[in-house]
Amino acid sequence: MPKLSVIVPFCNVQHYAPDMLRSLRLNARPEFEFILVDDHSRDETPTILERAAEDLSDVAAVRFIHRKENGGLATARNTGLEAARGEYLTFLDGDDWLAPGYLGRLVAAVEELGCDFVRTDHVQATARARTVHRVPQGRRWEVLNPREAILPAERSTSVDYPFAWAGAYHRRLLDKGLLHFTDGLRTAEDRPWIWKLHREAESFAVLSLLGVFYRRGVATSLTQIGDVRQLDFIRAFDQVIEETAADPEADRLLPKAVRTYCAIIAHHLAEIDKFEPAVARQFRTMSGAAMARMPQDLLTDVLDTMDLARASRLRRLRRRGTTPKAAA
Question: What pLDDT, on the 0 to 100 scale, is given for residue 228?
Fold first, then answer.
C-alpha cells in the first residue's frame, strides 16, 4: 500500500500543467502515488500528462487516467478516488502547484497526530501577488472534534474553508464513504463534501503548514466564467440543507447551514453582472425558489441578524420566490 495517494484532475490546462507536474517531482517519494486524471481535455493537456506519467515513474508510482467524457471536477476526483490505493489521500488541482517537500511534511504531521484528517493553510497566487489564507480555526496542532468546528453560526468556521486540496485524509474515511463528491456538480462541489466530513468524521486537526499555491484568475476556471454551470451551487447547498436537516443535531447545526447558503446567494447577487443575462435571470428565479425551500423560521432569524444591505437584497429575493411563477 502506498503511503499517500495524490489525486490531480486536469482539464484544458496545458499552460499550467507543467508547473504542477514539476512540483510533483519535487515532492515525489517511492512510497507516494500520483493519480493524474484528464477530464476529457480538448487541448494538449493529455499529451503533456502522458509524457509526464512516464517521466515521473522513476521517482514515484504514477497512474494516468483519461476520461472519455467530461464530468467536471467532482466526477474527476471520484475517478481518482476509485483508483487510489494509499493509506492517506489528498487532492490537488491541475492549475495549482506545491512547494518542494510539502507532501512529506504533510504526511509526517497527519501520522504524528493520528486523526481522521488534517486541514492546512494555503497561498493564493493572483498574477505576481501572493496572499496567505488560513483555516478559520485558532487551535493548531491539536486533535479536535470536527462536528464542534462547524459552529458558531455567525462566524466563519471550518466548513467555510471547503478546499479539498488543503489537507490530507486517512483511508478509513474513504472506506466509510465520506470522501466521494456529488457526481456532476460543476461548482461548489466541495461544500456538501466538507459538511459531510465535519458531521461524520471523528477527529481532525489544523496545521500551520503552507505548501499549496492556489492559482486565481485562470480564464478557464469556473470562478471566472458566468455561464449556467455556476448555478450548481444551488444544488450543492440544497444538499447541505437536506443532509443537515436529517442530522440528530439538526436544531443546532441548521442555522449555520442556512446562514451560509444565504451568504453565498447574497455574494452572487452583489456580483450579478458577472453572469450572462439569461443566467442572471435564471439565478434570481432559482435562488428565490431555494429560499422558499429553506426552513422559514430559521430563514427569518438569519435575515434579522445579517447586515442591512445583504438582508434587504435577500428579502426582496425571498418575496420573489413566493410568487406563483417561481413556485411553478
Answer: 87
The pLDDT of residue 323 is above 90: no
Residues shown for the chain: 328
Region of poorest pLDDT, from 4-18, 191-205, 268-282:
268-282
Q: How many CB atoms lie within 10 A of CB 170?
A: 22
* pLDDT-derived band at 320, boundaries 50, 70, 90: confident
Q: Rounded distance, CA 156 to CA 28, Å?
A: 35
Q: Residue 142 class from Cβ within 10 Å (0-12 exposed, 13-18 middle, 19+ buried)? A: exposed
Q: Is the pTM here over 0.70, yes or no?
A: yes
Judged on CB neighbours under 10 Å (0-12, 13-18, 19+), 139 is: exposed
Query: Residue 327 has what pLDDT?
Result: 42
Does residue 237 contact residue 195 with C-beta atoms inside 8 Å? no
